């Protein structure tokens, strides 16, 4: 999406805390076509927000009992006549059945709330399809990213953002005002061509995490196989010893830190590569190759997965003495000691090695936790840039800090984890975005820009 079309709050900085009744949208009559789950939740929310609601159903008598008494439930044509803004809470497949209403709908605003079952299911978006069926109406896409549940329980739970797009600015503003009175944050997604993108959002599953998770699983599999061969298969082949019992805990436990180390190094490596590339080309104004850019943008997820593996390793390690096999081994050692008539098996060097080994492990996990916690947007936002850089860079790794200006630069590529929300290191100004790639809306590729203000 061109930068000009970038998502932006629709109603500027107007406070949402104010009395809804003082807002121009409140008090007006809103129509809802359909009487399903979404229509019901929408009607409840609209009534609670001070709107008059008229529901259009094919069978109003049967459906009236499902709606709050303040909402009027009537036939579709009747409902449409009473209002200028109509939410079409009907599936795309049934849009054509509304064509009989074309005359009464003419000149009105239709809000398309529909979703699809697959990404890019149809050639044109549902909203564009609705607009083609009703050329005399103004269609606005919106509210599809909030579930019926979120609507009913209010904007306190779930996502507060409502993404809106339309070719008509005035209609978009009207719907945005309604969303705001309902307690949501309307976000302008530009013109109708963005509808397809908005419709795909609810269907995406952790897009920013896909590559890091696959990477972690791949590494886990490799190290697990290696450790399995070393700890189970090799002793069996060499000494015919059955060590299968080691698989669920010991093999997994030795695998986890290997994955954590490699993942952690993969957080730092792209920064070093980016710095090398800048040195090699002698300019900071050259765009990084796509693979490196993608890698840089996934550092936060890779870092958090590394922390997850390290935390699991700590838990597994704490549970090692709980195992029955461990108790048997202890008793076996004690018996052997008695049989050998050995009073003291204390080996000073071994003792020290283990004490230091565990202590360093605990400190490493502590530092990693600190990095992970400060990378969370809510915590990162509470730190000033100096505190943030102290924790994220000085405590871990100090690399060259690249300068930047324009869109071609990666912010401080080599300064480590930078699992940051807003790029404080670059500008020193909290919340001011720096850009490594043209700033895209968070949903455009699923990965918030590492230094952008689009982080969610
Ligand atoms: N449920 C959710 O959480 C969300 C739903 N949506 C969207 O909202 C829309 C409605 O979803 P939802 O309420 O869950 O669906 P439901 O199946 O619960 O309701 C659909 C409604 O469409 C009406 N309708 C109108 N014409 C027809 C027809 N020809 N055949 C069948 N039904 C018709 C029916 O009302 P009547 O019989 O009174 O005419 C029916 O109650 C969909 O487009 C969906 O993608 C979007 C976000 C979340
Ligand atoms: Fe360890």
Summarize the structure.
The protein is an alpha/beta fold and 456 residues long. The protein has 2 domains: 201 residues, 3-Layer(aba) Sandwich (Rossmann fold); 238 residues, no CATH class. It is built from 18 helices and 9 strands.
Shape: elongated
What percentage of amino acids are in beta strands? Answer: 5-15%
Spatial gap, N to C terminus: 19 Å
Query: What class, by secondary structure content?
Result: alpha/beta
Q: What small ligands are held by the chains?
A: NADPH dihydro-nicotinamide-adenine-dinucleotide phosphate, fe (iii) ion
Rounded to the nearest angstrom, the radius of gyration is 29 Å
Helix percent reads 40-55%
Question: What oligomeric state best describes the polypeptide chains here?
Answer: single chain
Cofactor: FAD; heme b
InterPro entries: Fe3_Rdtase_TM_dom, NAD(P)-bd_dom_sf, P5C_Rdtase_cat_N, STEAP_metalloreductase
Domain Pyrroline-5-carboxylate reductase catalytic N-terminal: 29-116
Protein name: STEAP3 metalloreductase
What does this structure look like?
One of its GO terms (cellular component) is endosome membrane. Belongs to the STEAP family. Residues 29-116 form the Pyrroline-5-carboxylate reductase catalytic N-terminal domain. The chain has helices at residues 37-48, 60-63, 76-81, 102-105, 126-133, 148-153, 169-181, 195-200, 210-239, 247-281, 290-297, 299-319, 324-339, 348-375, 377-380, 385-394, 424-427, 442-445, and strands spanning 8-9, 29-33, 52-57, 72-75, 85-88, 109-112, 138-141, 161-166, 185-188. The two termini are 19 Å apart. It has 18 helices and 9 strands. The chain is α/β, with parallel strands linked by helices and 456 residues long. The longest helix is centred in the middle third of the chain and has 35 residues, at 247-281. Helix 5 (126-133) links the parallel strand 6 (109-112) and strand 7 (138-141). Helix 10 (247-281) packs antiparallel against helix 12. It folds into 2 domains: 3-203, NAD(P)-binding Rossmann-like Domain (Rossmann fold, 3-Layer(aba) Sandwich), CATH 3.40.50.720; 208-445, no CATH class. The chain binds NADPH dihydro-nicotinamide-adenine-dinucleotide phosphate (NDP) and fe (iii) ion. Residues 257, 313, 317, 361 line the site of fe (iii) ion.
